[in-house]
Task: inverse folding
Protein backbone atom coordinates (compact mmCIF):
# COMPACT_ATOMS: atom_id res chain seq x y z
CA UNK A 1 0.00 0.00 0.00
CA UNK A 2 2.71 2.47 -0.85
CA UNK A 3 4.42 4.12 2.09
CA UNK A 4 1.53 3.79 4.54
CA UNK A 5 2.26 1.94 7.76
CA UNK A 6 -0.23 0.38 10.15
CA UNK A 7 -0.36 3.53 12.30
CA UNK A 8 -1.29 5.74 9.33
CA UNK A 9 -3.94 3.28 8.15
CA UNK A 10 -5.45 3.15 11.66
CA UNK A 11 -5.66 6.96 11.79
CA UNK A 12 -7.37 7.07 8.39
CA UNK A 13 -9.93 4.44 9.47
CA UNK A 14 -10.69 6.25 12.73
CA UNK A 15 -11.12 9.60 10.93
CA UNK A 16 -13.34 7.97 8.29
CA UNK A 17 -15.42 6.33 11.04
CA UNK A 18 -15.89 9.65 12.82
CA UNK A 19 -16.70 11.59 9.62
CA UNK A 20 -18.92 9.04 7.86
CA UNK A 21 -20.31 7.14 10.81
CA UNK A 22 -20.65 3.38 11.20
CA UNK A 23 -23.63 3.16 8.81
CA UNK A 24 -21.99 4.78 5.77
CA UNK A 25 -18.43 3.49 6.24
CA UNK A 26 -18.91 0.02 4.62
CA UNK A 27 -20.55 1.52 1.53
CA UNK A 28 -17.79 4.12 1.20
CA UNK A 29 -15.11 1.44 1.57
CA UNK A 30 -16.82 -0.60 -1.16
CA UNK A 31 -16.90 2.40 -3.50
CA UNK A 32 -13.24 3.15 -2.84
CA UNK A 33 -12.39 -0.48 -3.58
CA UNK A 34 -14.31 -0.31 -6.88
CA UNK A 35 -12.54 2.90 -7.89
CA UNK A 36 -9.12 1.41 -7.09
CA UNK A 37 -9.98 -1.74 -9.09
CA UNK A 38 -11.05 0.35 -12.11
CA UNK A 39 -7.91 2.49 -11.94
CA UNK A 40 -5.72 -0.63 -11.86
CA UNK A 41 -7.62 -2.12 -14.81
CA UNK A 42 -7.20 1.05 -16.86
CA UNK A 43 -3.53 1.25 -15.89
CA UNK A 44 -2.91 -2.36 -16.94
CA UNK A 45 -4.65 -1.77 -20.27
CA UNK A 46 -2.59 1.36 -20.88
CA UNK A 47 0.65 -0.46 -20.08
CA UNK A 48 -0.24 -3.28 -22.49
CA UNK A 49 -1.09 -0.84 -25.29
CA UNK A 50 2.16 1.03 -24.74
CA UNK A 51 4.18 -2.20 -24.76
CA UNK A 52 2.45 -3.35 -27.97
CA UNK A 53 3.18 0.00 -29.61
CA UNK A 54 6.83 -0.23 -28.64
CA UNK A 55 7.21 -3.87 -29.76
CA UNK A 56 5.50 -3.45 -33.13
CA UNK A 57 8.32 -1.61 -34.99
CA UNK A 58 10.87 -4.15 -33.74
CA UNK A 59 8.77 -7.07 -34.98
CA UNK A 60 8.20 -5.43 -38.37
CA UNK A 61 11.93 -4.78 -38.79
CA UNK A 62 12.78 -8.40 -37.90
CA UNK A 63 10.13 -9.68 -40.33
CA UNK A 64 11.49 -7.42 -43.09
CA UNK A 65 15.08 -8.57 -42.51
CA UNK A 66 13.99 -12.20 -42.54
CA UNK A 67 12.15 -11.72 -45.82
CA UNK A 68 15.20 -10.04 -47.38
CA UNK A 69 17.42 -12.93 -46.24
CA UNK A 70 15.03 -15.47 -47.77
CA UNK A 71 14.89 -13.57 -51.05
CA UNK A 72 18.68 -13.26 -51.20
CA UNK A 73 19.00 -16.99 -50.58
CA UNK A 74 16.66 -17.73 -53.48
CA UNK A 75 18.54 -15.37 -55.80
CA UNK A 76 21.92 -16.93 -55.08
CA UNK A 77 20.53 -20.44 -55.26
CA UNK A 78 21.64 -21.01 -51.68
CA UNK A 79 21.01 -24.25 -49.91
CA UNK A 80 18.37 -24.38 -47.23
CA UNK A 81 19.46 -25.49 -43.78
CA UNK A 82 17.81 -26.23 -40.49
CA UNK A 83 18.11 -23.59 -37.79
CA UNK A 84 21.41 -23.95 -35.99
CA UNK A 85 23.12 -25.76 -38.86
CA UNK A 86 25.72 -24.18 -41.10
CA UNK A 87 25.67 -24.59 -44.83
CA UNK A 88 28.53 -26.31 -46.61
CA UNK A 89 29.36 -23.02 -48.30
CA UNK A 90 29.60 -21.33 -44.88
CA UNK A 91 31.96 -23.84 -43.33
CA UNK A 92 35.61 -22.80 -43.09
CA UNK A 93 37.83 -24.33 -45.73
CA UNK A 94 40.99 -26.02 -44.69
CA UNK A 95 44.16 -24.78 -46.34
CA UNK A 96 46.14 -27.33 -48.39
Result:
Amino acid sequence: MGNLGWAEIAVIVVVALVVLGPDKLPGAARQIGNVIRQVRKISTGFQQELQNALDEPIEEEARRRGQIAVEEGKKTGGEESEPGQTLASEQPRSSP
